[in-house]
Design goal:
Elements lengths: L2 E5 L5 E5 L4 H9 L7 E5 L5 H12 L3 E4 L4 E5 L7 E2 L1 H4 L9 H8 L1 E5 L12 H9 L3 E5 L2 E5 L7 E3 L5 H11 L5 E5 L5 H12 L3 E3 L5 E5 L8 E3 L4 H13 L3 E5 L7 H9 L3 E4 L3 E5 L10 E2 L11 H9 L4 E5 L8 H8 L3 E5 L2 E5 L8 E3 L3 H13 L3 E5 L2 H4 L5 H7 L3 E5 L2
Parallel strand pairs: 2-15, 3-14, 6-7, 10-11, 18-19, 22-23
Antiparallel strand pairs: 1-23, 1-24, 3-5, 4-5, 7-9, 8-9, 11-13, 12-13, 15-17, 16-17, 19-21, 20-21
Helix pairs in contact: 1-2, 1-7, 4-6, 5-6, 6-7, 8-10, 8-12, 10-12, 11-12
Bound molecules: uridine-diphosphate-N-acetylglucosamine.
């Protein structure tokens, strides 16, 4: 099993290019199920979750080929299967995103219930409630969600919680429904907006994306797409935090600064000097130690839960005491125990972790538990004295493209060990 070995203590310097956003790529790939026409997506990062999605689509009869670097071509001429099997869903919860498109296109979809997840309960009840409101008959049979509908009908869907993939599922289903669907308390994440923009290029009628009310008027059929995905704000944020923690100076390119307001604000509060251009962000820490910051996660445009672990790591070596509060997911603090193994001074209190910054951390063997938590362990390893080895890096590979190569390019002493 692959591990990442880091010798800490080098300030990061240089430029790194940001990959396409995982959380936009997955729903956009799934949107190819909505049409029998060819679809092409550029800027696709090489990630485990992307390969899992292609495997899932392939099993459903979508013809897939890899074009030029980072481009995926797809055509779902005829669908061969209506089932997303447990073996794939259990490795990637986002597989639930096939539900809306499949149901809308062929009137039936079977998706395994995702089951246990390391970061809290994460139910899919709101996805189902929305599709039911649109006239779907939904049963749970032998661990599978079985959804059926002649043709979905436009409806008013009020989400109790602004779920990201729930909004995406319902929005995709609504593009082929009969009539107009209004999603209230919709998620406003940039990835939802990117999916909406792609669907619009397919001929979908959508407005209000990026606000909390999205209106979709269904069409009889959609065309294909030729689209480039937006850059990954979480990857960009992670490299900027790495720069801040190591006292370095890093420019991330092919980034979208406007999607990172909350994160950049917190980095400035931590003492970083930030400069932005249209598609780049530079963070200069000038060799200083970061100041502790308080962070509370919230749906977009609030502070992203996917950056929570990285800021917990930053506070571990910051000057002062910081409180990191998680309000989006329960039980998303598995990294705390691991950071403590490096000597971090932090204690959990309900949904918050209180962190007293230390002058130094000391390298140790660590275990990755989930995607973002594992990235934060790598960040901590970059500043810990001596050697840190992060085990179970397959979690990182789900969402970060070549993380060790990109960090090495910035001067980190880091390498991947296999076997
Ligand atoms: C997406 C992102 C993930 C990010 C999360 C929150 C993708 C592929 N993943 O996950 O990286 O951390 O948004 O920004 O885009 N909920 C319900 N019922 C539901 C659905 C969700 O109660 O039917 C709750 C969840 O338990 C959670 C909250 O809503 O407390 C937000 O979850 P959600 O936005 O659905 O997260 P995902 O879409 O799974």
């Amino acid at each position: 099993m692959a591990r990442i070995q880091i010798a800490g203590g080098r300030p990061l310097q240089g430029t790194v290019e940001i990959s396409g956003a995982k959380n936009a790529v997955l729903p956009i790939l799934m949107a190819s199920l909505l049409t029998d026409q060819p679809c092409g997506l550029s800027g696709v990062p090489h990630l485990k979750d992307v390969t899992t999605t292609m495997e899932l689509l392939g099993q459903m009869g979508v013809e897939i080929s890899l074009g030029d670097r980072f481009r995926v071509e797809m055509q779902a001429r005829e669908l061969a299967s209506d089932t997303a099997p447990y073996e794939l869903v259990k490795t990637m919860r986002a597989s639930i995103l096939v539900l809306g498109p499949l149901l809308a296109r062929q009137g039936v979809a079977k998706v395994s219930l995702p089951g246990g997840c390391a970061i809290g309960a994460r139910p899919v009840d709101l996805h189902l409630k929305g599709l039911k409101a649109m006239g779907a008959d939904i049963q749970v049979d032998a661990g599978y969600i079985v959804a059926r509908a002649e043709r979905l009908k436009g409806a008013r869907v009020v989400l109790d919680t602004a779920t990201v993939t729930g909004t995406e599922n319902i929005m995709m289903a609504a593009t082929l429904a009969d009539g107009t669907t209004v999603i209230e308390n919709a998620a406003q994440e940039p990835e939802v907006v990117d999916l909406a923009e792609c669907l619009i290029t397919m001929g979908a009628e959508i407005s209000g994306h990026g606000t909390n009310t999205i209106t979709i008027t269904g069409r009889e059929r959609l065309a294909g797409y030729d689209y480039r995905v937006l850059p990954d704000r979480i990857e960009a944020g992670t490299f900027l935090v790495a720069a801040a923690m190591t006292g370095g100076c890093v420019r991330v390119t092919r980034a979208r600064p406007d999607t990172l307001d909350a994160v950049l604000g917190k980095l400035e509060e931590a003492g970083a000097e930030i400069t932005v251009g249209e598609d780049w962000i530079e963070l200069d820490m000038g060799g200083r130690r970061p100041k502790a910051v308080n962070v509370t996660t919230a749906p977009y445009p609030g502070f992203p839960t996917d950056m929570q672990a990285q800021f917990t790591a930053l506070n571990a070596i910051a000057e002062g005491t910081g409180v990191v509060r998680e309000t989006v997911f329960e039980n998303r603090f598995m990294h705390v125990q691991e950071l403590q193994r490096l000597g971090a001074d932090m204690r959990l209190e309900g949904n918050a972790v209180i962190i007293r910054g230390m002058e130094k951390l000391t390298g140790a063997p660590l275990m990755a538990t989930d995607l973002r938590a594992s990235a934060c362990l790598v960040l901590a390893g970059l500043v810990a004295e001596g050697e840190t080895v992060v085990d179970r890096v397959y979690h990182i590979d789900r969402g970060y493209e070549n993380i060790e190569e990109k960090l090495r390019q910035l001067g980190a002493d880091i390498r991947r060990m296999t076997g």
